[in-house]
Design a protein that fits this description.
Elements: E1 5-8, E2 15-16, H1 19-23, H2 25-28, H3 32-53, H4 59-73, H5 79-88, E3 93-94, H6 98-107, E4 111-116, H7 120-129, E5 138-141, H8 152-162, E6 169-173, H9 176-185, E7 188-192, E8 208-210
Parallel strand pairs: 1-4, 1-6, 4-5, 6-7, 7-8
Antiparallel strand pairs: 2-3
Helix pairs in contact: 3-4
């Protein structure tokens, strides 16, 4: 089934967040993988806690805070490593299945849009760095709402922008919590489970389970 509007999470779905540390493994040291996992986990945790307490802090700042915590947990990193890791976050690698999937959907006449917690400027840099400018119609950021996913107000940005009802939207994310939020909102929620993670949020199931965007 083809939908008129395909909405994609950015970080972890289109862009490989762990590619940052992979590029600078030599600067980070033997705990590189652990640091990367903690960095990502804390980045997400900070968005949820900030939304719940109504204490907005922009996504770039939360990303820095999360890196500093992860570095402290892993014994510290140099100032050079910190600078390079944060710079690399602006030029994340896209997963190899992304461009072909977007190209195919656009060829079928669908709109392809990002809905992300990321800041508008950061999303623009990531899209340009990955060479996806001609394959995406737009990037919608949670920032103007002063909240983060999974707040319903963030998913509502899609309808406000495009006049689409939830049942006209196919929403793709590799983050199971994001898929749960999208399903609760009423989107056709697709879980791109590249890592083969176990399922959760059983009361808010995806419409489809896929291991790659190539199967979309």
């Amino acid at each position: 089934m083809t939908f008129p509007l395909y909405v994609f999470d950015a970080y972890g779905t289109l862009f490989d967040v762990h590619s940052v540390v992979a590029r600078h493994r030599g600067l980070v040291g033997e705990q590189a993988e652990r640091l990367s996992e903690i960095w990502r986990a804390k980045q997400l945790e900070y968005t949820w806690t900030r939304s719940l307490m109504g204490a907005w802090r922009d996504f770039d700042a939360l990303t820095e805070d999360a890196l500093d915590f992860a570095a402290a947990r892993c014994g510290g990193i140099s100032a050079e490593a910190r600078e390079k890791l944060l710079a690399a976050y602006e030029t994340l690698d896209a997963f190899p299945d992304v461009a072909p999937a977007l190209r195919r959907l656009r060829g079928q006449g669908a709109k392809c849009v990002i809905l992300s917690n990321g800041r508008p400027a950061a999303l623009a840099r990531a899209v340009a760095s990955a060479g996806l400018q001609d394959l995406l119609d737009e990037s919608l950021s949670a920032e103007p709402a002063g909240l983060y996913k999974t707040a319903p107000e963030i998913y509502a940005l899609v309808g406000a922008r495009y006049g689409a009802t939830p049942d006209q939207v196919s929403f793709q994310s590799s983050n199971r919590w994001d898929v749960a939020g999208a399903a609760r909102y009423g989107f056709h929620a697709i879980w791109i489970n590249r890592a083969g993670a176990p399922d959760e949020y059983f009361d808010l199931p995806p419409e489809r389970f896929l291991s790659t965007l190539a199967d979309l």
